């Protein structure tokens, strides 16, 4: 099939022309795009069960925000749910606007039930697909939606052929739990048997699932033969990376995390939680055909703990005319069964490794600093602490165990502080007492061993000496303008998961990735300093590493965490604090005049949304 190759050539020519053109027209005037989000609970029925779900405007996924680069976005959030809420604008850089980043008790007080809050931010210097989601417990599983930023000079200025239509494709999960935040509380107590009941595409489960023999509705993508479509793909799932394929068709990836990439033809997309991909799809099959679009979650093989496999599928349906796109496909008939793609094995993680490694930036990295100021080597894995703040404890099987399994960064598990005001307020007003709760993220882990030794995965005497960890509100301060290299190293202690690491307020140049233990003596030579991809969420491979570089040029306190929700709940997070620069334009401005300040009497966050204080010393665990 030659169409994807010809399309890639056309994109290369188009992008070169656009890149070299000198813009003489006046820039389009920026607009204010205003939305009102009403957060409430509604009953939704799937798998023969009615479930109470927290959503925005009664829909799942939530409303799409469509803006033009340079616009100002205003979103009024009205919280009619019983939960405390914040909304994070995933991938929006929030330059000098950390106040709108939406992290509870870091950048703002959460929005209490029956309270309102207004977010205001600019989308300057960014184009492509981002998204928004709740940043409280597990609520982003149902509180999420697309945020699409189009070029200031219109879609004709895309560095690729103008698509016939643009279509968000949001991969998610269905949880048949009336209170999904209970999963967060369970994980904090080492109860790990909660799993989603299904996977979804644009909120629909698809015909692999049924209620009393009646197939669930699936998402339908209606296309016309000969047309090109831009799929804006978002992984909003809590627990898994996904492979996405359409039978008999290929994609051309043109952007990732709202950063253009060199056109990459492929028949499969690999997308981790938090990531976005823009992919062109040419409808080059005859009219009248039907093809399955399949989303399959991958997971580490045994001896890692295994979770149920939940595949979902939608239908790509050809028609003679344009019928738009929507839901509610009739079940396939015997004489018109959609063609199905051949999918990778659920334990195949190398397909993802090669997919991510094949993405490169569309243009040469002119902003990539060649000299760095700081170097961090950051291990990502699991450990354990004693229950109830004990100094020493022993592990026993079942409910009698005295330990809690936690997720760590450099052997420290993030602990949310108990404060009367957000940390960003204390940082801005220099309240040293509140900031004293912070514990510095070290340059490297406390001990070096074979981080990717797969014999450390099963519980037992070999991994036991490596379990003991500490807890704390871990943070790292950076001078404004510092160029920072971070090597993320996934580990195999008790688990060998990959780790999609998301940094708020910044993009990262992905310099290299590898399988096994990082070795600076040989791996620095592999760094791509010409056209590295630019991401806000970087997938650190299973039992492998990823090297990134970023410039700490956005003042504020920024969350850095794994986008697997189970890892985040268990403590795989840290704070990156960027100090003010020498001028007003490089310093954090004061909070907005209408910024809500919470006080001591507001009961701003229920205890179950936070780790209780376990102390920061290393704990001693025995009895394996």
Globally, the shape reads globular
List the uncertain runs: 1-27, 322-333, 600-624
Report how far apart the termini are.
Answer: 57 Å
Structural class assignment: mainly beta
The main sheet comes to:
7 strands, mixed
Rg on CA atoms, Å: 24 Å
Query: How many separate helices?
Result: 7
Nearest-integer average pLDDT: 89
Helicity range of the residues? under 10%
Amount of beta strand:
35-45%
Total beta-strand segments: 37
Characterise the protein shown here.
By secondary structure, the chain is mostly beta strands. It contains seven helices and 37 strands. Strand 11 and strand 12 form a beta hairpin. The N terminus and C terminus are likely disordered.
Compose a concise summary of this entry.
The chain has 624 residues and is mainly beta. Helices cover 9% and strands 37% of the residues.
Highlighted features:
7-stranded mixed sheet; 7 helices; 37 strands; disordered C terminus; 624 residues; disordered N terminus; 6-stranded mixed sheet
What are the SSEs and their pairings?
Layout: H1 3-20, E1 32-46, E2 49-56, E3 65-68, E4 72-79, E5 87-90, E6 116-122, E7 128-134, E8 144-150, E9 165-174, H2 181-188, E10 198-201, E11 210-211, E12 214-215, E13 219-224, E14 228-235, E15 242-246, E16 251-256, E17 259-266, E18 269-271, E19 276-282, E20 290-297, E21 312-319, E22 326-327, H3 350-357, E23 374-386, E24 392-394, E25 403-409, E26 412-414, H4 423-428, H5 432-435, E27 438-440, E28 470-478, E29 482-490, E30 499-503, E31 508-515, H6 520-523, E32 534-535, E33 537-540, E34 544-552, E35 556-562, H7 565-570, E36 573-578, E37 620-622
Parallel strand pairs: 1-4, 3-8, 9-14, 13-21, 23-29, 24-37, 26-28, 27-28, 28-36
Antiparallel strand pairs: 1-2, 4-6, 5-7, 7-8, 9-10, 11-12, 13-22, 14-19, 15-18, 15-20, 16-17, 16-19, 20-21, 23-25, 29-34, 30-33, 30-35, 31-32, 31-34, 35-36
